[in-house]
Design brief:
Elements (H helix, E strand, L loop, with lengths): L1 E5 L5 E5 L1 E7 L2 E7 L13 E2 L5 E8 L4 E8 L8 E5 L13 E2 L9 E9 L2 E9 L6 E3 L5 E2 L7 E4 L3 E9 L4 E9 L7 E5 L13 E2 L10 E9 L2 E9 L6 E3 L5 E2 L7 E4 L3 E9 L4 E9 L7 E5 L13 E2 L9 E9 L2 E9 L6 E3 L5 E2 L7 E4 L3 E9 L4 E9 L7 E5 L13 E2 L8 E9 L2 E9 L6 E3 L5 E2 L7 E4 L15
Antiparallel strand pairs: 1-2, 1-5, 3-4, 6-7, 6-9, 7-8, 10-11, 10-14, 11-12, 12-13, 15-16, 15-18, 16-17, 19-20, 19-23, 20-21, 21-22, 24-25, 24-27, 25-26, 28-29, 28-32, 29-30, 30-31, 33-34, 33-36, 34-35, 37-38, 37-41, 38-39, 39-40
Length: 496
């Protein structure tokens, strides 16, 4: 857990702590601890959950300044979507003029899309430049123009390539299986295995899902989504050996599977991507909802740049409705062992790329340490681990275009470097009797976190961010699982 509060200078900070919730004789006992195990006594101002929100960001221009528009969406209830604006440094921003898509130095008439060439287990990044009335022009990562016939593999939009991880056991060792999905062409899907440290691994025995020392009663609970047209409804499904699955709705009420409308798919199969579009007059956002396990369920919907529902009025084309000067800027990451450093790279026709660091200072490409890859290729997953005495986080960093750059590192729950002291296993070092799931109440532009405790045969119990029990009828807004919402960030500096 994190405690969002103000520091001495009045700035927002998040302070990590451990919350232990135990059911002792039907009495809920809650303790808060610092990461060193001592009591955490600070007032909990706002309890924050890292996976509470799902957000997409888009660079925008108000005629003077480049800023970031954050599109917040709730997969289970798209009507709750909203947006907010910040500077590239993350401070609140109010646009001063007419808003256009892209940075204020964006190119004219043409658009560039990042593609991935998938060739077996090799993924190579390319930029494809599309200009009206011309054939596409392809560039490699060094901005060298290449003939499309020289590209090995199948070209797909980079946004079509997604990666998911699964903890596995081969009978002896725990390892990670990485599943690479290509939504536009599932025949290109592949997987590869690594150790928990991110090194290449070859399983030695029969492989099964889950850690090698999993205990309990043999049951597991998985989040599912019922996809019914443009409606997505979350359910919990409990699987126990030799028994039929048991289905629960958002209120922990058991429901008959025959009463569920739509097609049930694992919630992890549902993904959302956005695309800036133009109908000849207005620039808008098209949201593509993908269901990896059943593409026939895919759908899309349109909104304005502010997040309200929109119906295109003319012929729709990809990209925004405005024009610029032929240059474009793409975010790259330099991956160097266990260091990831962001850079902005400006590409102009007939010129060498120009590289900028986080402070917007121009740098020579030869001074950059590590391998440059598009920032969209770098993803990070966290895994709660235990070394026998201390709960810590293992961060698994993977690079879809070059898996040889993958690595991992360990931290305490507060983010400090950590070296495991004993045998490492997946999961926290302690566990409770009942199941607690994080929910969010979405009410307009307000998202309020709640903890919901589910115990067999009992009504759910709701707790607010101060751990006070509340009546569900007093909660304003729509309750959705916090995992339905996510956030992404944009690194950079305000253009001047």
């Amino acid at each position: 857990m994190y405690n969002k509060k103000k520091d001495g200078a009045g700035n927002d900070v998040i302070d990590p702590f451990i919350r232990e919730v135990c059911n002792l004789g039907n009495f809920l006992h809650v303790n808060n601890y610092k990461l060193d195990g001592t009591a955490y006594t600070d007032t909990i101002v706002e309890a924050v959950v890292a996976d509470d929100i799902e957000v997409e960001q888009q660079l925008m221009c108000d005629g003077t300044n480049t800023f970031v528009r954050w599109f917040v969406y709730v997969k289970g209830n798209p009507t709750q979507n909203f947006v907010y604006d910040t500077t590239l440094a993350g401070e609140k921003y109010t646009p001063a003029g007419s808003v256009m898509v892209g940075d204020c130095q964006a190119g004219e008439g043409c658009e560039t899309i990042v593609y991935s060439a998938v060739n077996g287990k090799q993924i190579t990044s390319y930029r494809a430049k599309f200009c009206p009335g011309q054939d596409p022009v392809y560039y490699d990562k060094d901005n060298v123009e290449v003939d499309v016939s020289s590209i090995s593999g199948t070209l797909v939009p980079a946004s079509d390539v997604d990666v998911e991880k699964q903890i596995m056991c081969d009978g002896t060792n725990i390892f990670v299986r990485w599943f690479v999905y290509v939504t536009s062409d599932p025949s290109l899907n592949f997987s590869y295995d690594t150790t928990l440290e991110g090194l290449a691994y070859t399983p030695a025995g029969d492989v099964r899902v889950g850690e090698c020392n999993a205990g309990g009663d043999g049951c597991e609970t998985i989040l599912y989504s019922a996809v019914n047209g443009k409606q997505i409804t979350p359910y919990r499904v409990k699987f126990c050996p030799g028994q039929d699955p048991v289905y629960y709705d958002q209120n922990n009420a058991e429901v008959d599977v025959s009463s569920i409308s739509g097609t049930l798919v694992p919630s992890g199969d549902v993904d959302v991507e956005k695309q800036i579009m133009c109908d000849g007059t207005n620039t808008f956002v098209r949201w593509f909802v993908y269901v990896a396990s059943d593409p026939s369920l895919n759908f899309s919907y349109d909104t304005t740049l502010e997040g309200t529902a929109y119906t295109p009025a003319g012929a729709v084309t990809v990209g925004d409705c405005r024009s610029g000067d032929g240059c474009e800027t793409i975010l790259y990451s330099a991956v160097n062992g266990k260091q990831i450093t962001p850079y902005r790279v400006k590409f102009c026709p007939g010129q060498d790329p120009v590289y900028y660091d986080q402070n917007n200072a121009e740098v020579d490409v030869s001074s950059i340490s590590g391998t440059l890859v598009p920032s969209g290729d770098v993803d990070v997953e966290k895994q709660i681990m235990c070394d026998g005495s201390t709960t810590f986080i293992r961060w698994l960093v993977y690079v879809t275009s070059d898996p040889s750059l993958n690595f991992s590192y360990d931290t305490t729950l507060e983010g400090a470097a950590y070296t495991p002291a004993g045998d490492v296993r997946v999961g926290e070092c302690t566990s409770g009797d009942c199941e607690t799931i994080l929910y969010s109440a979405v009410n307009g532009k307000q998202i309020t976190p709640y903890r919901v405790k589910f115990c067999p045969g009992q009504d759910p119990v709701y707790y607010d961010k101060n751990n006070a029990e509340v009546d569900v009828s007093s909660i304003s807004g729509t309750l959705v699982p916090s995992s339905d919402v996510d956030v992404e960030k944009q690194l950079g500096s305000l253009a001047t």
